[in-house]
Design brief:
The structure is a homodimer. Chain A is an alpha/beta fold. Chain A has helices spanning 3-14, 19-26, 30-43, 107-121, 154-165, 218-222, 224-227, 236-245, 249-272, 282-307, 322-337; strands at residues 17-18, 46-52, 59-64, 70-76, 80-86, 92-99, 128-135, 143-144, 147-153, 174-179, 183-189, 192-196, 276-280, 312-315. In chain A, strand 4 and strand 5 form a beta hairpin. The longest helix of chain A has 26 residues, at 282-307. The mean pLDDT of chain A is 91. Chain A binds chain B through residues 185, 187, 189-190, 192, 194-198, 200-205, 212-214, 259-260, 263, 266-268, 270-273, 301-302, 305-306, and chain B through 185, 187, 189-190, 192, 194-198, 200-205, 212-214, 259-260, 263, 266-268, 270-273, 301-302, 305-306. Chain A binds a DNA duplex through residues 2-4, 18-20, 28-36, 38, 51, 53-60. Chains A, B: Keywords: Kinase, Membrane, Transferase, Transmembrane, Transmembrane helix. Chains A, B: It comes from Actinoplanes italicus.
Chain lengths: 338, 338
DNA sequence: CGATGATTCTTAAGCCAGTGAAGTAACCTC
DNA sequence: GAGGTTACTTCACTGGCTTAAGAATCATCG
C-alpha cells in the first residue's frame, strides 16, 4: 500500500486529523506525510479545516473534501432500482429510485438513471469517479453512462459502505451482516473486503432442505421466506410492522428467526475474530428491533465469557440503502488504493 | 510486501522456477527479478539447479537452498514436548521428543532441548534463524537458548506449516483444521495466517453446554472427549486404533463426531471461501480414515451443487508433528516477510 | 558450420518515494 | 519579547524499481 493510500485511508478513518497524527498512525515519517499531504491538497482531495492547540504550534487539522469527488452506487433490490450519489467521505448527496427493469442490469436504463441523478444533484460529470453496482444476480455491464463500473455482491458492497460510513479503522476486523431478500455477509480484514457465505451457514445439522441443496442452512431455517408465515401479511416489511405494533405470531416468527441468526452471527464472530458487527440491509432495517437485541445479547454473552475483546454490535443508520451506498464506496475504495 | 519477499514466496510455492516465471508470477519486471535473485544467490538462500529448454536460451531454474537456514519448532502436546528442526523449505531435518515439563514453557528445559536438537543434527548455531513455539496454553518465553522466539496457537501454526509443506500458492485461500486435545483451525488469506475459533462453532443450537459456557459447540458435541466413550478404551488414539481394526462402538463414536465436524468444516469453507482444506494434528492423523472421507464427502457435495470452485480436502502427510513444523515455519515466514 | 531467430537474463541510466537531519513557523508562558 | 515547545517544511540522499538496450545461450536451417 502506497503512502498516499495509507494517508488517505487514515484520514478517512480518523478525520479530522493532523499531520503528526497521520505520521504516527501510518508509520511514515513526518516528512513523507508533509509532502504527500501537500499533493493531496493541491489535487483538492483534502482540506485544511481548523487547528487544535498542542502546547507548541497548533496542529492543522485535515479532512477529506466531501465534494471533491463523487461516486454513484446502484442497487437493484427486487422491486426497484436505487441510485445513490455519495461524496468522497461516503455521505449521501442525492438519491433516486426507479421501478425495476428486466434484465436487471440493462445498460440503457441504468445510464438514464445515472444521468438523472447527476443532473438532479447538479454535479459535473468530471467529478464523478465511476459507478458501483451491488449485485444480487448477474454481472453488470462494464460501462454505464460512460463511467467505469465496479461491482460486488450486495452484502460485500454493504460491508465496504459501512467501512466508510462508520469510519472503521483499517486494522479493525469487522463484519457486516446483510438482510435483503436473503441473508449475506461481507467481512473486511486488513482493509480488504471479502464475501462470506452467511446465508448457508448450517444451523441445524438435519434441518429442512435449502434451495441450495444443503440441509439446515440459515436461509432455509430462518430466512425471510420462513418468516412470512403462510397466514400472515404479505411481505417481510408487513410482518415487521405488525410485529412492532403488537405481540403475536409475526413477532414470534421474527424472534424464532433471530435466535438462529444470532447463533450464526456468533459463528461468524468466532471464526473471523472480528470485534465489530454491523447489521444492515432493508431486512434488518425493518426488523432491527428484534434482530438487534437478539444478536447483541448472544454476542455480548459469548464475549463476556470467552472472547473478551469487547465486540460491538450496531445497526447501520442508513440500512435500507446500504447496498447502494456501499456500491459507491467500492469506487471510492478503489481510487484510494491506487 | 517487498520485491525480495514476493520473490522468495514465489520460489517457495513454485520451485523449481525460472526468473521469467518469477517475473510473471510476482508482477515485477525481469530486471528487478534478476537483481534481487542475484542478491539471494550471493546470500546463499537460493540455488541455481538445472535448466529447462524454452525455444531460445534455456531457463535456469531456481530453488531455495534447503540447508541454507534452519529453524526450530516446539510443540508441547500434553504428554510430551516435540522439537523439530526444519530447513528453509519446511522439510524436517531432525526431531526429538522429551517428556512434558511443568510449567509448560519453562525456558531452561526448552533451551536444553533446542541445544540437543541442534547438536544431534550437527547444525551450526549461526544458521538457525530462531525458535517457533506452537502454544496451547500460556505464552512462551521471549528467548530460548539465545534465539528469538515467535509463537502462535497450535492450529494457526499448523496452518502456516501446511502452507509451506504443501507449497500453497500465496493467492490461494486455504484453511487447516487441527485436532489435538481439542479442535482448532487456522486460515491463510493473502499469505496471512489467522486463527479461527473452530472448536466453538455452534453445531447444535440447543446442544449440551460446553466448558466455554456456550451451547452446542463442536467441541462439546463432537470433541475428542465425547469420542472417548465411557466404556471404551482409554485415550483417543486407542479408540481410533480399535475403530480401525473392526466396526463397533468406537467406530460409531468416531463416525458420529465426523458428521458434526464435516458440517462445521462446510461452514468454514463457506464463510472463508477457501478452496483447500488440510486436516492435520495428531487427532486427525490417528482417525483420518473416518474424518477424511466424511469431511471430503460433505464438502464435495456442497461444492458440486453450490460453490463450484473445486475445493480440495487433504490429510497432512506429517499430521502428528504438524504443530511443531508449523511453529518452525513461523520463523521462516517472518524471515521471508522482512 | 555459421547466420538467424528466439528467448532468457543482465546491465546501465534514470526516476520517484521515502528517510534523516536540519531549518522554519506558530503558539504558549513568563 | 525572549525562550520553550511542538508542528510542519525543505533538501540532499538513498535504494528499489522501471525502461531500454545489450549480452548470453540455445535451436534451426540453409
Amino acid at each position: 500500500m502506497s503512502a498516499r493510500a495509507r494517508i488517505l485511508d487514515a484520514i478517512r478513518a480518523g478525520e479530522p486529523v493532523s499531520r503528526v497524527e497521520l505520521a504516527r498512525r501510518t508509520g511514515l515519517t513526518e516528512a513523507a506525510v508533509s509532502t504527500t499531504v501537500r499533493k493531496l491538497l493541491d489535487e483538492g482531495l483534502v482540506l485544511e479545516t481548523g487547528r487544535s492547540p498542542s502546547g507548541g504550534k497548533p496542529r492543522t487539522l485535515l479532512r477529506l473534501d466531501p465534494a471533491a469527488r463523487v461516486a454513484v452506487g446502484i442497487h437493484h433490490d427486487g422491486d426497484r432500482i436505487i441510485y445513490v450519489l455519495t461524496g468522497q467521505t461516503g455521505g449521501v448527496l442525492a438519491r433516486l429510485a426507479t421501478p425495476a427493469v428486466s434484465p436487471s442490469y440493462a445498460a440503457g436504463p441504468l445510464a438514464d438513471g445515472v444521468e438523472r441523478l447527476l443532473s438532479v444533484a447538479g454535479v459535473d460529470r468530471d467529478r464523478c469517479l465511476g459507478v458501483g453496482v451491488a449485485t444480487a444476480d448477474g454481472p453488470p455491464p462494464d460501462e454505464i453512462a460512460g463511467f467505469p463500473v465496479l461491482s460486488q455482491d450486495q452484502a460485500t458492497a454493504a460491508a465496504v459502505g459501512a467501512y466508510w460510513v462508520e469510519r472503521v479503522e483499517p486494522e479493525r476486523p469487522f463484519a457486516a451482516l446483510y438482510l435483503g431478500t436473503a441473508f449475506g455477509a461481507g467481512v473486511v480484514l486488513d482493509g480488504r473486503a471479502r464475501p462470506a457465505g452467511f446465508g448457508h451457514v448450517c444451523v441445524l445439522v438435519d434441518g429442512p432442505e435449502c434451495w441450495c441443496g444443503g440441509r439446515g442452512c440459515l436461509e432455509a431455517v430462518a430466512g425471510p421466506r420462513t418468516v412470512i408465515t403462510s397466514g400472515g401479511p404479505a411481505g417481510f416489511d408487513a410482518v415487521a410492522r405488525q410485529a412492532r405494533s403488537a405481540p403475536g405470531p409475526c413477532r414470534e416468527a421474527l424472534e424464532a428467526s433471530a435466535g438462529y441468526v444470532a447463533a450464526a452471527a456468533e459463528t461468524v464472530v468466532n471464526l473471523f475474530g472480528v470485534n465489530l458487527l454491523v447489521l444492515t440491509g432493508p431486512g434488518f432495517a425493518a426488523a432491527s428491533f428484534v434482530y438487534g437485541p437478539a444478536i447483541a445479547r448472544r454476542i455480548r454473552a459469548a464475549d463476556a465469557r470467552t472472547w473478551k475483546r469487547s465486540v460491538t454490535v450496531t445497526v447501520s443508520p442508513a440500512a435500507t440503502i446500504a447496498a447502494a451506498t456501499g456500491a459507491a464506496a467500492l469506487i471510492l475504495q478503489s481510487h484510494l488504493t491506487r
